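Section 5: illustrative case.
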């Protein structure tokens, strides 16, 4: 709802959240607002998850813990990528 009613510059989400996962949220966001860069963060150090997220079209994947300066570099980068829509829109 909020993504349709307000203007956002990007989405920053954790991978593990109550209810849906960050990847499920990414698929929903990429379907309704494909121009929004999506940054995913996680404390899970499994490289397969990072690869899968980037393969799906997530802009950046931050492994926690990370320095705030690293996040600042990413969000202030004028060449921040655009996401690609996931196949099949989720019902988030």
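Designed sequence:
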């Amino acid at each position: 709802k909020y993504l349709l009613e307000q203007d956002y510059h990007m989405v920053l989400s954790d991978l593990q959240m109550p209810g849906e996962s960050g990847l499920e949220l990414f698929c929903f966001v990429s379907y309704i607002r494909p121009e929004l860069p999506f940054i995913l963060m996680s404390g899970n150090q499994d490289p397969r998850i990072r690869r899968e997220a980037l393969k799906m079209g997530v802009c950046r994947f931050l492994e926690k813990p990370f320095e705030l300066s690293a996040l600042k570099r990413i969000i202030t980068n004028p060449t921040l990528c655009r996401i690609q829509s996931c196949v099949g829109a989720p019902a988030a």
